[in-house]
Design a protein that fits this description.
11% of the residues lie in helices and 14% in strands. By secondary structure, it is α/β, with parallel strands linked by helices. It is elongated, with a radius of gyration of 19 Å.
């Protein structure tokens, strides 16, 4: 019998998963726990999944992503956390997920991100933060190498604090012809305007 490398437990009523559900030397590379009722990521279970490449928690009830819970997943390339209730992601949450390339965080309740959140994820190519509650992104948040970012459907406050994101988007358009889809909610005079179309003066920036 070949070792189990894929496991789908989607669309059940699971709210917990124990470490002893899988052997300590598990060969799983793909785990789908979407459509369940997890409020917390089962850290014990993940301890045994050092070979995991894809992890799917789409449409659960996750409220936060603490430091350490993803640490065993050093080979993880694709993480789906969309359609949850995430309000907080610890600044160290992705400290050891060095191979992470695709990260889906859309349709959560995130209001802030730490500026160093993705600093160790040097392979990150696609990041979806659409449908959250973000007003600004801190300087450095998308460094060093995020290629494509979706920032649609957030209540962006288009003022001088958008300096970093505005510059990052202009560079992205120049290099990759890709926009973040960030659209202003405030101030009222800029409501509905794509960030990429704004002038420095409209953002209150002083350009040397």
């Amino acid at each position: 019998i070949s070792p189990l490398d894929s496991l789908a437990l989607k669309n059940n009523f699971l709210s917990r998963a124990e470490a002893d559900w899988l052997p300590s030397d598990s060969n799983l590379t793909w785990l789908d726990l979407s459509g369940n009722r997890f409020q917390k990521i089962p850290a014990g279970l993940l301890q045994n999944l050092g070979r995991l490449i894809t992890l799917d928690f789409f449409e659960n009830k996750l409220e936060d992503l603490p430091a350490g819970v993803l640490d065993p997943l050093t080979l993880l390339e694709r993480l789906s956390l969309q359609n949850n209730k995430l309000r907080f992601i610890d600044p160290l949450a992705f400290d050891t997920t060095f191979a992470l390339s695709y990260l889906f965080l859309q349709h959560n309740r995130l209001e802030k991100l730490a500026p160093t959140l993705f600093q160790t994820v040097k392979e990150l190519r696609y990041l979806d933060l659409s449908g959250n509650q973000l007003h600004h992104l801190p300087a450095g948040a998308l460094d060093p190498s995020v290629m494509f970012v979706d920032l649609a459907f957030n209540p962006w406050h288009c003022d001088a604090k958008m300096d970093y994101l505005w510059r990052w988007e202009r560079k992205s358009i120049e290099l990759h012809q890709e926009e973040t889809k960030a659209v202003c909610s405030l101030p009222v005079m800029l409501k509905g305007r794509p960030l990429a179309t704004l002038s420095p003066e409209e953002l209150g920036l002083k350009i040397d």
